[in-house]
Structures are given as structure tokens and as C-alpha cells.
Amino acid sequence: MTTDKALIAHLYRRAGFGITHDLLEELSKNSYDSIVDNLVEIDKIEDLPDEDILSRYYPQLQSTDNFGLDNTRWFYRMINSNKPLQEKMTLFWHHVFATGWTKSEQGPTMIDHIAMLRKNCLLNLRVLLTDLASDPAMIFWLDNCENHGKNINENFGRELLELFSMGIGNYSEDDIKEASRAFTGWTFEQPIPLYPYGHFKSQFIFDEEDHDFGEKEFLGNKGNFNGEDIVEIIVKTEACANFISRHLYNFFVADEPQIPAWSIEPPKDQEAMKILVSTFMDSNADMKEVMRALFKSDFFKNSMFKRVKCPAEFIAGALKLTSEIGPKDDRLASLHGLSTVMGQTLLDPPTVEGWHTGKEWIDGGSLTERINYAVGLVTDMNNTGSKHLVDNLVNTDQELSAEQLVNNVLQNAGHLEVSEQTFDQLLEIASKGPSVGNNKDTEEVREKVIERYDGLADSLYFYAFHDSFPTSNEEEEGIKVEQNLLRVIDAFKDFK
Length: 496
Hints:
Strand order of the largest sheet: 1-2
Largest sheet: 2 strands, antiparallel
Number of helices: 25
Shape: globular
Helix content: 40-55%
Number of strands: 6
């Protein structure tokens, strides 16, 4: 049973960081459901065998005092992992459970924090939330080390309910206090002093003498609750199912309003939410089953090009399509800074609320950075993937009409859909110069093909293969957005 290539490309943009042309051809021979199952069942897939080689070419990775270096390793995994969904889910949870370097400035705990998210990303939510509550980076980030049996600190208890699991309006101030009491004594051992050897790891400890063992009343339940009990109560609520499902929809399906508005603005797709919530409740908060249901749903299949990717997704996706990034590639070291310039510093979200998403990722500066980066990659024939894209068009048995050339460019870049306006722009460019195809492999022909990819990138909709902007499916809004952004692009053309 074969599967539509456009659907597979869409799946891999959302469940991973894009897909190469060759892998797309290979996977299209399989059924869609089997492709989803293989993505979700990460335990059956071998991990990266050569990740340790990175340290040979980046000996600085042995240092734990520069979180930018940690992002070098993470970007390498995003681009090369055999488990793309694992890295994508790790990035997702990093958005939800925002924890940052700026406060901790403790490299080992941040490294362990991301590793914890990666290990638990598709497990039961109660496991993830429990490990999150016992994570030294999170404990310090939200001051639970200052949460004492006789003097509670409500910071972690409040954010656990408000931003990590339930959302505003589903709990009371008393629930916050009682949850905070349950997490008293959840702290970490003091790490070895920084000097002279740098940072050392810290470990979670449960301080019985600092824990409040008294009876508590939380969300209508009474008992001598510890932190694990609080998590157990939370994940059984429909409020938790709704909250996590909306996060999943916003990150994997289509842009939603920013999280502060969720208490007053309903979800865009109520039917999709019903499916996700019911799967969450029926599976007892099994994230693997929730993701399986999400990717196999009609609402997901029909959501192409309905969200703006964050900078990390954009960078990893662009590199995956155009380049082979091995452990000794010197471009890896620049990706942390590049992502920051585009508006996202991994391992250092701006607030506990994480990053605002959707169109808030895009302004004149970040848009220009994205376009220039995409154009530079796709037109650089030193990049294996970029050269392969050109070869696929040049080495065809028949001569391509201008329309066929544009359609083939869109297909090779990830089976894209663009607005009529963008297509006409590309068609106008494709009508000029020598004919392409019929195995006429000349420098002039290659330049023409490269110009088509350049035109695609420069006309904004190179973003589409990153799921970045609405297309003709949202005609009125899409045209308005496109026109406004094209004006921005024109204003910055001289700086390209």
C-alpha cells in the first residue's frame, strides 16, 4: 500500500524536522499508519551511533559551563537522529516546561534536564511530571528548594497547575497551597563548589525533616499527600487532558492563541480536542497513544501549512533538506547563535511561560534572517542536499515546461502548496532562460534550476516547507499576510 508523498512530508515536518527526498521516496511504499507507528515506537529504533564523535571535533563539549555548546549537540540530534519524534517531543516539552540557564547558570543540571525530557517524552504524563518535580534544574528555577514544611513557597505549586498541567480556572488558591505543602522537602543536594574545576552535577533529595506530612485537601481529595499523589490526582482530571491536548494541537497541528488567552478563548478545533482528550483519558495519560491518535487523525492530515515553526525547527529542517551535517561539520557551532538571532535561545526561554508562538515568531528582523539563511543553503551547491535537489530536475528524461519545472521544484522541496500569487511569480521566473530536462546538463541549465529554488526561498514560501505561513486554503488571510511580508522583504532586498 502506497502513501501520498505530500502527506508523508507533512508528517515528517511536524513529527520531526523534515525529510530528505530519498527517504520520502522509500517511505511512500508503506502505509501511512505503519509510518506513524514506526515514528511513535521510539524504543524499537537504534539511537545515533556516532554522537560521541562530536566530542572529538568539539572538545569544548566536555565543558558544562556554556549552554550554547549543549545546543550544538542538540541541533546535531535534531538533524541526524533516527528518532525524530523523540527530539521533537523533547523540544515540545521544553516549550511547555520552560526552564532556563539565565537563572541557574548551572550547566550539568540543564544538560540533565533536557535528557530527562528526552527520556520521558513519550511515556505516561504522570512519570514525566513526577520526574520534572524532582529535577534539580526545575527545583531551582521555580524555587522549590525554598519550599519548607513550616514555611511554604508556592512558586512551583502554582506553575505546576497554571502552566504545566491544568491552566487557569481549574483550581483554587487553596489547591495551590495544598499542592505546595505536598512538595515540601523536594530539593537537591548542594553541588560541589564551582571553583576551580567548574560545575558539578546535583542530585534530587527528599528531606523528610522538611516535609509536611499533614493531611491535605487537593481538588476535592483528602489525604496525607506527597508530590506523587498530587501528580496522580492531576493527570486523572479532564482539565489536565484538555490543557495538554491544546498544547499538542498548538505545537503539532495549527497555531492557537497565546497561552494566557486560553481561559477566555476556546480552542479553534473543538472536534480535534475531543479526540485528543478522549485518547488521553482512555489511555490513562499515555503520551505515546495520544501522539499516535493525533498523527493518524483527519484533523492532522488536513492541517498542512497552518503553523509557524520556531527557529530551532526552521534551522534543523532547512539543514536536513539541504545538507549532510556530520559530527565534524564546523557549522554546528554557529546554530545556537543563529537560533538566538531568529528569536529563540534554546535552554533559556524568556519566562516560565516559555516562548510565544505562531506569527509572533515573525518580525522584520527575524523574517530577514530566515529568508537569507534559507536562500544561502538552498543555492549553495557545496551542500549535498541542495545539489541533489538540482540533480533531480536536471537529470530528467523529458524536457520540462515552465509549469512542470515549478511543480517539480515544489515537490522536491517537500511537496509544497503555495498561493496562486506565489506560483505565478515562480512561473514567471521559470519561463526565462534555457529549457530544463531531457538530460541537458550544462552550467546554464543548472543556474536556471538554482534560480527557481532561490525564487522559491526569496518569494517567502520557502517557509511553507517549514509549515510557516497560510496558503490558498486560507485565501483572504494568506494573501494579506503574504502581501505585507513581501513589502518587508522588498525593503531589505539590498541587504541580502
